[in-house]
Every structure is written in structure tokens, then in C-alpha cells.
Design brief:
Length: about 200
Amino acid sequence: MEEPVNQAGNVTDQDAILVKAFQQGDKEAFDRLVQTHQKTVFNICYRFLGDYSEANDHAQETFIKAFRSICTFRFEASFSTWLYRITVNTCINRLNSKSYRQQKKLIRFEGKSGTEKGGMSFEPADPDPFPLSQLELKEKENLIKKAIGSLPAEQKAVVVLRDIEGMPYEEIAAVTGSNLGTVKSRLARGRQLLKNMLKDYLG
């Protein structure tokens, strides 16, 4: 399996050292694990939930769950895989919650003709606007974000993990608890749904 690395070396090996240190009583080791993974955890939450505040809340919830369970971590998978599985499950639970579904009832993907209550809202004209190309790019990014947000949870998971976070198929399978064939079929279906939703807007 391809392993994530950074400039300091193999993150997975460093994670294992920190997890063992925490399990042996070094409470500061968990803070270092948070520092290593907080950006990815937040990004996954944001891509799932589409809201900064929601993403921040559920990234924190992810780390709280990890903190409570880390002493039972058995090193059967990498720490990052274990943590991202908690992240994805936390987000899916939120998406499936009754309160979230009620909150999102008025938010629908309608494309350029939508209104604030119809799902697409655009910021008022700025007296010192960005160049047109940047405005168009921002508009496309918003369309893509809303399209991803409308995907079913299982397809959203693999699209976010593969196409946005660049995670290897094998790790996605471990994170989602699915086999490789299922991961690839969900990804293909998710990509096709995105293509269908965006074809009239992105050319």
C-alpha cells in the first residue's frame, strides 16, 4: 500500500511512535498527532458537510472520539487509516441525522438559476471586484462543491478521499470498510453523477 509521507519522513512510522508514547503515558504525544492530521481531517469534514462551522465541529468530534479510543488501538492498520475511518463515519452519521436532513431540505442543487432558498447563491457585486477569470473560477468551485455535497454518502466518501485527498484505493477500502471493487464502482458512479450535474455549467 502506498504510504503517506511528508518532509519529516514516513508519517505512518512517526504516528506509530506517537501512539505508543501516548499509550505509555505521554499525553503530549496526542497533541502532535492532532497537529499532523488536523488539516486532512478538517478538509474531509468540510468536503462532506460543505459548511465551515459544521466541519470544524465534526473535526473536533473526530479527535475527541480518537482520544477516547486510542488506548485500545492495536496497530492492525495505520493510525491515519484508523483516524480517517472515524472521520468519515462521524460525517456520515451527521449526514444521516434527522436534524441535518431537515436543515438541508431547502438547499437543493439547481445550477445558475437558483436563489438563496433554491440552493445556489452568489455574493453581491464587489466595488473592487476580482478579475473576471477569478470570479469564474470561484463560481465553478462553488458549483463543484455543491455538486459533491449532493452525492449519496457512500459515493461522496470515495470521491472526496480519492479525487480531493488523493488517497490510494487500498487505503480508501480500509477507511470505508469496503473491498476494492466496491470502492472503484462507487467512484465511477460518483464521477458520472458529478459529470451529469455539471455538464451544463462547466462545458
